[in-house]
């Protein structure tokens, strides 16, 4: 017996909305999905008429859906926005190739200008060059720090009014929980803001703030949007991993908890007597920083002076800068230190997280950068104190990190199984470069996890987006 | 190597898997934590009447013991309060309920204390009778059934949340009847970490200070949590070395609800990442009340916030629910959605209590919601 669409449009329902539980037909689902984002944009006053807006594009599902919907709404409601795509290329041989191809596809599909900025453009160095200088031990530090600032620098180059990122409701709820677990009160306060940016910086906005990840996946699937997904994802840092596992469990019982957590974050305040680190701008580069000179500038100075290790070098100035930075770090970390050590040192942790999410098996990575990374791991020059380098940012194609996400097509399949109605079967993607998969040149299907390339931007405001195994970056006050 | 961290005598208690204490130093330390909490907040007048809420569980057993020790002292450290012990029935199946209440009476009498007992169903029909000491309240089955009907119409997660609000309300009610301006409640570190996460997860983020902090001052009767710095591990040890026997050993049932998931999550943290629990609680201490002084929620007495036009998850949820049923085929500036999802919001109820209300079915007795609203 077909179920009819809840809106009374007369068509049969094809899915149950994960967010509200209502059974809708495709058209009404699209409409509701887009209307909600439109509501968020207008009610939240995210844009002004005539604005140039850079969409942070990674080729992943969130940014692809964001680009698609913004394009649609800009036309439908005549926002008068000048939309463009902005991608960052770290310059790691082989790593971005596939996702950048997808972004280029987005560019053609949505007829938007695309600007791909490389680390070379932004900082004068590619990651490959940095690795050549620094070795693989510490490169995750560079990559993470540079990534956090890349969007700001890119947006400044493009001269846009604001940056739209693909953070969805799940990401934000997860971040709230994570910040509680690691006691980061400053970020806890900031992370639910729909628009962030201090004086003199380019604001970032989150039009998908109230959009459920599951609905993004379903929207992309039914709309047959092309997005890139790798099976290779960052290992979430320990806190994020914990928070994610907890959120997924709770969502099963009460889907509205995602919105409720966001509401909690929006309405809670920091006690007046608690002083938060002020978020200012770096005196050198003028981008957001909680230090006088931002970490990126410190690292760049080291690189440019041929003292990539900075503290090891002879430059007293660099030494001083590093010392100040370290002192600040220590101070900020304070009592968290032990927690971080506990979490980092525990090899059980990731296992626990994985187990609780029923990861079936680890898959081997097929992308090029992974191989080189494996080589390094095997070369046993890994410095486990700081960052287990196989989980490092350049090693994002970590072959054995199953992560906590259902693998491959099973993601959309299991969603359809749970939320699809009747003819859902017909819509299961076949992996022919349509739907949610992109074929790789060698004919292999890139399996998707729902993490996909999105980590590029979703983590930009995080501990470092470097696998997070480097808990040491955790207390930098950037972004969120 | 095997000596107490504090005094160098042989140690026999290990905390946090690494810190060794002797029995004396351990006891001193627990006492200190308990007293420091009360002392540092300096709000109790000498010989103040304090309602001590006892559940019969482990924490309540330790609380009872700590109070006994404190008021028995004869030196400058004496705890200057007049404790009034109270237990609320109606949270478990009837047979267990009576078993626990009777065991608790015995426990209190053993310390030469008396115990007052109330029943949770009286929430619906508050009278001003106080039961005679050391006796179980007479059961009003009609009332109990009404109350249980109300509970069973809600999801387990909402029900648990509602019950915690009812508890709080009843404690305050009995405190007033028994002339207490203060209440001690026995939440420990782990419980509070759970409560913080639960609060966040159900939309009570702005109420964290009241529900997790040392002092809940929503009512003129203040609820204090003097055990807030004591960990579960310490509770276990304290019970063991003092050979205490809790009145209730019945473990909470593992219902499929948010509170259970969070509790298990925290238990896991407790075992493996003790420091994270402290971090979570320290975070709680920094969270204040987000709303300006305004109307209070009829159920939880928290500030309900003003009707604002700003976009929040509340507006977004409302919009979702109407858009999903085909209403509002209009543009964004349609502001006046029927607040079907959130009855009485911003008028008599806070976000979460309002959501809870929307789940309650009182078709059996249309008055129940009104009773709550007219309190
Ligand atoms: Zn329809
Ligand atoms: Zn800088
Ligand atoms: Zn000792
Ligand atoms: Zn309330």
TrEMBL record, chain A:
Q: Where is the tRNA(Ile)-lysidine/2-thiocytidine synthase N-terminal domain?
A: 53-229
What are the subcellular locations of this protein? Cytoplasm
- Which EC number applies? 2.7.7.-
- Pathway stated in the Swiss-Prot or TrEMBL entry: tRNA modification; 5-methoxycarbonylmethyl-2-thiouridine-tRNA biosynthesis
Residue ranges of the Cytoplasmic tRNA 2-thiolation protein 1 C-terminal domain?
A: 281-310
Give the span(s) annotated as Disordered.
425-445
Give the UniProt keywords, A-Z. Answer: Cytoplasm, RNA-binding, Transferase, tRNA processing, tRNA-binding
Q: Name one Pfam family in it.
A: ATP_bind_3
Instruction: Give the top-level enzyme category.
Output: transferase
The reply to whether tRNA processing figures as a keyword in the UniProt entry is yes
| Tagged with keyword RNA-binding | yes
Q: Which CDD domains match?
A: CTU1-like
Report the protein's function.
Answer: Plays a central role in 2-thiolation of mcm(5)S(2)U at tRNA wobble positions of tRNA(Lys), tRNA(Glu) and tRNA(Gln). Directly binds tRNAs and probably acts by catalyzing adenylation of tRNAs, an intermediate required for 2-thiolation. It is unclear whether it acts as a sulfurtransferase that transfers sulfur from thiocarboxylated URM1 onto the uridine of tRNAs at wobble position.
Family the UniProt entry places it in? Belongs to the TtcA family. CTU1/NCS6/ATPBD3 subfamily.
Protein name per Swiss-Prot or TrEMBL: Cytoplasmic tRNA 2-thiolation protein 1
Provenance organism: Loxostege sticticalis (Beet webworm moth)
Automatic annotation (TrEMBL), chain B:
Identify the pathway: tRNA modification; 5-methoxycarbonylmethyl-2-thiouridine-tRNA biosynthesis
Enumerate the UniProt keywords alphabetically: Cytoplasm, tRNA processing
Q: Is Transport one of the keywords?
A: no
Is Repeat among this UniProt entry's keywords?
no
Instruction: Name the InterPro entries for this protein.
Output: CTU2, Rossmann-like_a/b/a_fold
Location in the cell reads: Cytoplasm
Query: Its domain of life?
Result: Eukaryota
Family statement: Belongs to the CTU2/NCS2 family.
What job does this protein perform? Plays a central role in 2-thiolation of mcm(5)S(2)U at tRNA wobble positions of tRNA(Lys), tRNA(Glu) and tRNA(Gln). May act by forming a heterodimer with NCS6/CTU1 that ligates sulfur from thiocarboxylated URM1 onto the uridine of tRNAs at wobble position.
Give the protein's recorded name.
Cytoplasmic tRNA 2-thiolation protein 2
Q: Which organism is the protein's source?
A: Loxostege sticticalis (Beet webworm moth)
């Amino acid at each position: 017996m077909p179920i009819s669409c809840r809106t009374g449009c007369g068509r049969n329902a094809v899915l149950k909305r994960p967010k509200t539980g209502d059974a809708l037909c495709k058209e009404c689902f699209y409409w509701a999905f887009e209307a909600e984002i439109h509501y968020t944009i207008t009610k939240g006053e995210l844009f002004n008429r005539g604005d140039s807006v850079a969409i942070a594009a990674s080729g992943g599902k969130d940014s692809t859906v964001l680009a698609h919907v913004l394009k649609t709404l800009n036309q439908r409601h005549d926002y008068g926005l000048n939309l463009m795509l902005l991608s960052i290329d770290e310059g790691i041989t082989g790593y971005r190739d596939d996702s950048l191809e997808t972004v280029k596809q987005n560019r053609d599909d949505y007829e938007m200008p695309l600007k791909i900025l490389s680390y070379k453009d932004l900082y004068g160095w590619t990651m490959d060059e940095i690795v050549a200088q620094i070795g693989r031990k510490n490169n995750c530090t560079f990559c993470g720090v540079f990534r956090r600032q890349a969007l700001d620098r890119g947006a400044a180059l493009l001269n846009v009014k604001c940056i739209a990122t693909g953070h969805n409701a799940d990401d934000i709820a997860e971040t709230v929980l994570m910040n509680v677990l690691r006691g980061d009160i400053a970020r806890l306060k900031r992370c639910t803001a729909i628009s962030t940016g201090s004086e003199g910086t380019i604001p970032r906005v989150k039009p998908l703030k109230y959009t459920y990840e599951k609905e993004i996946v379903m929207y992309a699937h039914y709309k047959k949007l092309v997005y890139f997904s790798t099976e290779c994802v960052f290992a979430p840092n320990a806190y994020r991993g914990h928070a994610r596992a907890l959120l997924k469990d709770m969502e099963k019982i009460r889907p509205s908890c995602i919105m409720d957590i966001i509401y909690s974050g929006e309405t809670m305040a920091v006690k007046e007597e608690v002083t938060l680190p002020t978020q200012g701008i770096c005196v050198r580069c003028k981008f957001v920083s909680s230090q006088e000179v931002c970490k990126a500038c410190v690292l760049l100075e080291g690189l440019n002076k041929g003292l990539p290790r900075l503290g090891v070098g002879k430059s007293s100035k660099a030494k001083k800068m590093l010392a100040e930075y370290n002192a600040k770090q220590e101070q900020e970390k304070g009592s968290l230190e032990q927690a971080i050590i506990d979490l980092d040192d525990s090899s059980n942790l990731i296992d626990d997280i994985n187990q609780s999410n029923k990861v079936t098996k680890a898959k081997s990575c097929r992308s090029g950068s992974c191989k080189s990374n494996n080589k390094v791991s095997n070369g046993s020059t890994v410095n486990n104190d700081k960052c287990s380098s196989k989980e490092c940012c350049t090693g994002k194609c970590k072959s054995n990190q199953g992560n906590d996400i259902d693998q491959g097509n099973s993601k959309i399949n299991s969603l359809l199984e749970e939320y699809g109605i009747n003819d859902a079967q017909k819509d299961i993607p076949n992996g022919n470069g349509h739907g949610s998969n992109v074929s790789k040149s060698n004919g292999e299907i890139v399996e998707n996890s729902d993490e996909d390339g999105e980590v590029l931007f979703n983590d930009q405001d995080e501990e470092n987006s470097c696998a997070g195994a480097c808990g040491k970056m955790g207390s930098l006050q950037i972004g969120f | 190597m095997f000596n107490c961290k504090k005094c160098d005598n042989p140690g026999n208690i290990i905390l946090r898997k690494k810190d060794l204490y002797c029995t004396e130093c351990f006891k001193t330390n627990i006492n200190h934590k308990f007293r420091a909490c009360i002392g540092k907040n300096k709000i109790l007048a000498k010989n103040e009447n304090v309602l001590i809420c006892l559940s019969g569980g482990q924490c309540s057993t330790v609380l009872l013991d700590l109070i006994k020790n404190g008021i028995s002292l004869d030196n400058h450290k004496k705890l200057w309060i007049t404790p009034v012990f109270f237990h609320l029935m109606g949270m478990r199946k009837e047979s267990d309920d009576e078993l626990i209440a009777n065991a608790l009476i015995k426990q209190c009498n053993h310390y030469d204390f008396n115990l007052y007992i109330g029943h949770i169903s009286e929430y619906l029909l508050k009278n001003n009778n106080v039961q005679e000491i050391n006796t179980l309240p007479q059961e009003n089955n009609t009332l109990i059934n009404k109350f249980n009907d109300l509970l069973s119409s809600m999801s387990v997660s909402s029900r648990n949340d509602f019950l915690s609000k009812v508890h709080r309300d009843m404690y305050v009610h009995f405190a007033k009847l028994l002339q207490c301006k203060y209440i001690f409640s026995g939440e420990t570190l782990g419980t509070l970490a759970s409560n913080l996460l639960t609060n966040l997860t159900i939309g009570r983020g702005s109420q964290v200070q009241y529900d997790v902090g040392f002092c809940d001052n929503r009512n003129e009767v203040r609820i204090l949590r003097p055990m807030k710095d004591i960990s579960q591990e310490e509770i276990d040890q304290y019970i063991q070395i003092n050979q205490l026997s809790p009145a209730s050993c019945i473990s909470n049932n593992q219902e499929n609800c948010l509170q259970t998931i969070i509790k298990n999550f925290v238990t896991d943290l407790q075992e493996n990442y003790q420091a994270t629990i402290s971090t979570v609680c320290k975070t709680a201490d920094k969270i204040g009340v987000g709303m300006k002084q305004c109307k209070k929620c009829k159920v939880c007495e928290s500030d309900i916030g003003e009707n604002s036009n700003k976009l929040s998850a509340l507006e977004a949820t409302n919009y979702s629910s109407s858009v999903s049923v085909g209403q509002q085929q209009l543009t964004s500036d349609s502001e006046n959605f029927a607040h079907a999802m959130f009855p009485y919001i911003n008028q008599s109820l806070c976000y979460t209590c309002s959501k809870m209300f929307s789940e309650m079915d009182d078709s059996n007795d249309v008055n129940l919601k009104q009773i709550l609203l007219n309190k």
